[in-house]
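Exercise: predict the structure of this protein bound to adenosine-5'-diphosphate.
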Amino acid sequence: RAIIELSDVSKSYATSGHIAMPLCGITASVPQGAFITITGPSGTGKSTLFRLLTRLEEPDKGRIVYQGKPLSDWNPPELRRNLHYVFQVPILFPGTVADNLDYPTKIRGGKLEKQEMQKLLDRVSLPRDYLSRNVGELSGGEKQRVNIARSLSLAPDVLLLDEPTSALDKKTTEHIEQEIRNYHAKGHTILWITHSPEQATRLGNIQWHLEGGRLKERTIK
Ligand code: ADP
Ligand code: ADP
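Solution:
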């Protein structure tokens, strides 16, 4: 069963005299529970695809359906709770790590217990005492780990990851990969953009390669 279906989706941008056409008539579907890795040269529309899926932008043409319902019928906040975009550059607000981890739950009227926040830190291999650290003092890689932990706190059905490990060292990368695999094993659907063909093959069961506006699909396992 497909959780996401794209039919003939196009998106272009007009910029200072020329037109960039990152996506040109893309048709593809994401099976429920798939782990899709997305590769392609820089500037080929990988992030654009994620922005379309989360309705940060609208396609010029074509149709996207999530859970059997056209994307245009979803209200964006509800959609983004289910289909969550982990931006490549972590967007944290000033405050402590705990403030940031708690935020998605808090704005939905809930509260994360300290123990739950500590478990989220364990999952991204950050020390538990980081809860009280100010995010302004963290390194880029640590910010990315807080960013991922915060996304996991919402337990979205579909996780969209935009080169999540590109700024991380090998050990942390392995840890994050394992965490996302565990998340996938629980039945969640993963879309992961990577610049590494090796990582794409290692992690994915389906690979989407974007180039020249087109999408080529390959079954890995
Ligand atoms: P990728 O994630 O594969 O590196 P992007 O999806 O970020 O690529 O961008 C695809 C193309 O669209 C690039 O040529 C980029 O310059 C262009 N583009 C993306 N966003 C905009 C925008 N808001 N305005 C103009 N051009 C854009
Ligand atoms: P909500 O998603 O319920 O609106 P958030 O705190 O997650 O609340 O996001 C606030 C706003 O920031 C969103 O409405 C959206 O514009 C942007 N945003 C944050 N996280 C995401 C995400 N993962 N995907 C897309 N947009 C996001």
